[in-house]
């Protein structure tokens, strides 16, 4: 599903070039649940942004579902994100003035799904994550765990092939973190490929495999 060979990425900081990824090789098979770990500055977030087609890479090769991702236009990258990918962020990234149901339905709006179908699908997904009775509440009226479950429902709205989660439990207490990772594992068991960036070893231990980054390279990959 995901294949990277020798992927590099640098950023300009003033007149200096900072190489963040120095030739990353990795593979994620369809249906896997993979954790990516590494210390701060190891390149985890940069790697996730590249996997999510949110950032271009400088060198090497990235294939998603057998398709070469090099040289994509912004429009084509956006199309592929809508078609293939779902995102879950540590900060939830919910729109504050829209209800839980409206937040979940947003990806379907961008796919030009009819309003009634959007509303139906949104209610289905909120029921799936145990929040149907909160459908009309704003994010400010929800707990952290509830916000993350809304974010997961939103990520599922367009039935993505891959979900990319960036520290999905980073803002949550241990009990709520466990509930969120259980939900992600349940979705993975139904066939959704998942890549989870985390600094928490107990979260990584719940994943099938862990890829460790160090100084912009894959240091190891295997079970925790």
Low-confidence stretches: none
Largest sheet: 6 strands, mixed
The percentage helix is 25-40%
Strand neighbour order, sheet with most strands: 6-7-8-3-9-10
CATH superfamily descriptor:
P-loop containing nucleotide triphosphate hydrolases
The beta-strand count equals 10
Overall outline? globular
Question: What are the secondary-structure elements, in order, as H or E?
Answer: EEEHEEHEHHHEHEHEE
Give an overview in words:
The protein has helices at 44-51, 74-84, 100-110, 115-128, 144-156, 174-189, 201-205; strands at residues 2-13, 16-28, 33-37, 59-64, 67-68, 85-89, 162-166, 193-197, 209-214, 217-222. It is α/β, with parallel strands linked by helices and 224 residues long. It has one domain: P-loop containing nucleotide triphosphate hydrolases (Rossmann fold). The longest helix is centred in the C-terminal third of the chain and has 16 residues, at 174-189. It starts with a strand and ends with a strand.
């Amino acid at each position: 599903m995901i294949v990277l060979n020798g992927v590099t990425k640098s950023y300009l900081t003033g007149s200096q070039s900072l190489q963040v990824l120095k030739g990353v090789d990795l593979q994620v098979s369809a249906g896997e649940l993979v954790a990516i770990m590494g210390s701060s500055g190891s390149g985890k977030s940069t790697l996730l942004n590249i996997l999510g087609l949110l950032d271009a890479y400088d060198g090497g090769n990235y294939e998603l579902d057998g398709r070469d991702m090099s040289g994509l236009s912004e429009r084509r990258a956006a199309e592929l994100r809508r078609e293939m990918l779902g995102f879950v962020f540590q900060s939830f990234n919910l729109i504050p003035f829209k209800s839980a149901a409206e937040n979940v339905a947003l990806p379907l709006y961008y796919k030009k799904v009819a309003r009634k179908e959007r509303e139906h699908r949104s209610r289905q997904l909120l029921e799936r994550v145990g929040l149907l009775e909160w459908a009309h509440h704003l994010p400010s009226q929800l707990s952290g765990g509830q916000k993350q479950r809304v974010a997961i429902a939103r990520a599922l709205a367009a039935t993505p092939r891959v979900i990319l989660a960036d520290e999905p439990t980073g803002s949550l207490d241990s009990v709520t973190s466990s509930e969120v990772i259980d939900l992600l594992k349940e979705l993975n068991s139904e066939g959704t490929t998942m890549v989870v960036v985390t600094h928490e070893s107990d979260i990584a231990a719940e994943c099938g495999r862990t890829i460790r980054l160090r100084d912009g390279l894959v240091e190891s990959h295997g079970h925790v």
